[in-house]
Design goal:
With 201 residues, the protein is mainly α. The protein has seven helices and no strands. Helix 4 runs antiparallel to helix 5.
Length: 201
């Protein structure tokens, strides 16, 4: 039996489909996270023409922003009361925004003038960091609310780690291959962003 208010299992062992399903929730997010970490700097400098120092500072600033917003998101999520529970609404919102983030990070709309590309990417990085926080902080809080068993929480995390490994291997192999399959690096990154958006959803 499951407590509907917080998703906590009243049984000692979580059903395998529940544990596997929770772990699967990190697959698309981890693939996008890996792609951003591996490809964003090169994309910003070699494709968009942003200076390396500026691009590095922008990425670093987004990481600092993420570190500040994580605990704030935890407080917000803890205090929410919703018929879907405290965490699930944020997974839906954050997941949808992350799909949008994959698109805005790796493709520049034609209406953006060249002199505004740096500002656009700054916005895109902050939007992505916000969406990641909205999804990941409540997601990582769920195991403690799904079961009181230390072993079951460990089992849940093991499913997550397996999916992260699959996502990282796939993103590292497929990402550069997708980009290289296009004559234009900009088009390759844009198509990769579309793939990642679908995977996240």
């Amino acid at each position: 039996m499951t407590n509907q208010s917080d998703g906590k299992s009243d049984d000692s062992v979580l059903p395998t489909d529940v544990a596997f399903g929770w772990g699967l929730g990190t697959l698309g997010i981890a693939a996008l996270f890996n792609a951003v970490n591996v490809l964003a700097l090169n994309y910003m400098t070699n494709v968009l023409g942003i200076g390396a120092a500026v691009a590095g500072l922008m990425i670093a600033a987004s990481k600092i922003y993420d570190a500040v917003t994580d605990p704030l998101m935890g407080v917000i999520s803890d205090r929410v009361s919703h018929r879907l529970g405290r965490r699930r609404p944020f997974l839906l919102i954050g997941g949808g925004c992350l799909a949008v983030g994959a698109l805005v990070l790796f493709s520049i709309p034609a209406i953006v003038p060249p002199e505004a590309v740096t500002w656009y990417m700054g916005f895109a990085l902050i939007f992505y960091a916000t969406a990641y926080t909205v999804y990941n902080v409540p997601y990582m809080a769920m195991p403690a609310e799904m079961t009181d068993s230390y072993h079951e929480r460990t089992r849940l995390i093991s499913y997550r780690v397996q999916n992260v490994a699959v996502a990282n291997i796939t993103a590292n192999a497929a990402g550069p291959a997708v980009i290289a399959s296009f004559a234009s690096a900009a088009m390759g990154h844009a198509f990769l962003g579309m793939i990642l958006a679908v995977v996240v959803l």
